[in-house]
Amino acid sequence: MKLYIGENLKQLRLAKGLTQEELADGLGVSPQSVSRWEGGASYPDVELLPEIAGFFDVSVDALIGADEARQQARLREARKAIWEEEDREKRREMARKLCREFPHTAAAWITLFHELAWEPSPEDPNNLMPTEKRYAEAKKTAEKIFSLSQDNHVDFDSTVRCLIDIAPESEVEELLDQYAAAYDISRGGLLEHRYLTREDWPRYELWRQNVLLSEFRRWIQWRFRKQHGTPPEVDVWAMTTLLRFVNLLTGYDGDALIDPTPDLWYNDKQLLAELLANAQAACGQVEDACRTLGEMLTLIENCASLPAGTVLTFRCPVLDRYAYKVTGQPIPTAERSWFSVPLFEMIAVDEQGEICDETETASVDIAFTNPGVNGHGGFDAIRDDPRFRETVKRAENLLKAR
User: Fold this and answer.
1) How many angstroms separate the CA atoms of 257 and 125, rounded?
2) How far apart are CA 5 and CA 19, in angstroms?
3) pTM
């Protein structure tokens, strides 16, 4: 159980208008001890707790935060029970009860808000979709969250986004006027303005490349196609175009559509290639689908065979601050996904080759070998084709090797 002695002690001391030195004098301890207690570096001796509680005229439970800890445990248990309940209406009623029990706790109201804002899709019960059905109650719940989360931008921003998702069309403009800033005053926008006006070009460059990479990644996201999964001809066009866009960024002009050169686009290229092959298969283009998958596997094999010391970049001059050094083979883990292929361990390095982050595992997810994977139904039409079976065998050998 987490103890809140330090936080509570500081609040009690400030409420009395005492300095740490004055409190230390009143308790007969050193100011350093009070400082360590309030900072969470240590706790007071058990024998001293009643004296400290008596000094502030509170109970020992209130001093150590036992009541608060029990409340937090109760909140966690109640939220877990809500998530485990299958009946959606029962979940909503349980969430309303939770808010009555914890009226001043944002987490309780956030739980209710999401129960009101989402419901299972009629086509797929496992897929939750935003709903307008309970918008009036959801809006009041959101306003309660805003009042309790003024210093928590994550809760505030995510609630605003979801509220606009579920709002009727007639309400959207009013919500945007109320919650969307007329000028970008986000953290990134403020920092950009600071670096630009101070002509702090090194920091401005770091910010610029972060934003640029984010925008590039937005453009090559698979969800930017016309419509999810249909018609497959559109997916073929979209994935082909996005792969060509990546090739344009890196300057690649080889014969294969999927550039086999290992670089920091490896995950993007792999995902786009698998989606392209799925769409080709759905169009009956078996040979094209197998060729695309073969090019993708060549890329993965090349990445998996990189020697330690290899430095990878985005091969794009405007993103030259991003560089990772391969440190070795991936470390086996029991948590590995059944379709995940770990490629290598890598670590970020600066322009001088100095390490500037922690080691991470580079990996890709190969899903086309398994029937029933969501979004990969196009492969089902060609699973009996000998050419496809041979490609699957190649992928399975690669999975086993990793």
Assistant:
1) 37
2) 17
3) 0.61
